[in-house]
Amino acid sequence: MLAMVCPQPGGLEREKIRHSCAGCYLSRRMNDWMKKLKTRLPAMILLAVTLLFWGFYDRYEPAGSVLLASPSLADADRLVGDCTETNGLFTLNVPASGKRASVYFRMPGANSCELIRARARIKVEDVVEGKYGWNCARVMVLQYDENNKWIPGTHGVVAEKDTKGWEAHEDVFEMLPEAAHTDFVIQQSGKSGTAWFDSIEAQPVRLRDSFAWWRALFAGLWLWMGALYFIRCRLHCRKLHVLILLNALAILAGAMMPGKWIEASSEFAKEQVAQAVEKKPPSPTILPAAKPAKPSPDLKHMDQFNELVGDAHRSGHFLLFASLCFLVYWSAALERQHRSYYFKVAFDIFIFASITEALQNLTLDRAAGISDLRTDIYGMLLAVVLFVVAKAACRTVLKLKTSSSE
């Protein structure tokens, strides 16, 4: 009985050895992870400094008197729908009938400025999106020519739907030379719901002289950091290093591309689509009466196009990070890396995604966004799934070849 209850000396020694080996393995893995974390610590610190600095640094300074500040309903140039105001708090309500509610404020002297910063706080409750994504509660800055015709271009400050608490938003707009006057617009164009607006303000601004110096400093630091980690992480020794490098460069080019270039390419695409539509042959059907000519593109058409551009932007984020993660994982599989290496790779790509968002603060008209980072993570998750499926498929094919050869 005692022999059955008490372990034999040999068995006890084997148990001690097994626990000792497990402890040593865990200790080695922890030390390895701590070493890798220390290796990446400089990049993480610079990332935190970049986000904190550009989160608090205002690259613009006032360049003139305030054009609009906490206006009342009496200051409005035009009203549409159910609009009320109390002490600078505007309430725009759209009933079940869906009649749009809008308030237009004319800003005299705005077009003599180069840049105007528009600010407002917005709160929405049960705002139901309309037929298009832009049919919701929003704040805009619209510019018109001498014929009172809206000039297409970037105009949105914020667009909200569903139910959300108070949030402050702002954006800077370049005044177009062909514009005759400019309106600050708050609107609720959803199917139904209520939107509140306050702290409405518009002011001429200009870039601070220190912005160029700070941007050069952070750009230099990140270039040095990139060169350091390229050597330290031996990226040039990876199996698929050329494809990985090209993918990473494409992501960096997209992150650092000025908003004006994106807008210019969008305008070019819009013109090409418009020309293609105009060249489309007419229908052979003979109608009893000629149809009236279609109106020129207006604000509604421009918003639809901007929505498509936004979808393309998100798709680019998703596909580029999905391909990057898949290439790095496949390269690791070709190198026969340990399973723990894949977790390290995922962490590295997440840091890289955060860095690309932070680098957008170095441009004139772009900033880091949580939504873009979320899209990057979704792309990485898709890459993981595709990698697991592809690797399993390759193993199956190899087994079939091996069995058939035998």
How would you briefly describe this protein structure?
The chain is of the alpha+beta class and 406 residues long.
State the end-to-end distance.
53 Å
Based on Cα principal axes, name the global outline: elongated
Low-confidence stretches: 1-6, 285-297
User: Which sheet architecture does the biggest sheet show?
Assistant: 7 strands, antiparallel
Helix share, percent: 40-55%
Into how many domains do the coordinates divide? 2
Keywords: Membrane, Transmembrane, Transmembrane helix
Protein name: VanZ-like domain-containing protein
Describe the overall structure.
Helices cover 50% and strands 22% of the residues. α2 packs parallel to α7 and α4 runs antiparallel to α6. It has 406 residues and is of the alpha+beta class. The N terminus is likely disordered. It has two domains: 191 residues, no CATH class; 140 residues, Jelly Rolls (Sandwich), CATH 2.60.120. A hairpin with a 2-residue loop joins β4 and β5. The radius of gyration is 29 Å and the shape is elongated.
